[in-house]
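Today's session is about reading a structure prediction critically. Students often jump straight to the picture, but the first step is always the sequence itself: look for stretches that repeat, for charged clusters, for runs of hydrophobic residues. Only then move on to the predicted structure, which in these notes is written as discrete structure tokens rather than atom positions. Here is the chain we will use throughout the hour.
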Amino acid sequence: MNRVEIIKLRSPLKASILLKEILAPMVKADQSGLIKIKIYRHATLESDLSVHLHWEADGPEQNGSALGLRLAQALKEFGLIDHSLWIEEKDSKINPERSRKR
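Below is the predicted structure for this chain, in token form.
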């Protein structure tokens, strides 16, 4: 089952470098099922960040993974946090038609 855990930080500080410094040691521990981590910044607000933890695991953890919970807790001192867990719907892949027939 694929899921994505999203931790959004709304901060008055430009925290992208700080976020990487906080995240790096946390990820070194065994993170069974962790596929990838992506960090996004808001298109117009450079201080708003979103961390996406992509997981493949049996059964979702309702409140988030240990890594996600630790990261959310560590980032609380820098601003407002929104932490959520999303489960991929079965048969959710939508392939847009790429060829145009004229």
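Discussion point for the tutorial: The mean pLDDT is 83.
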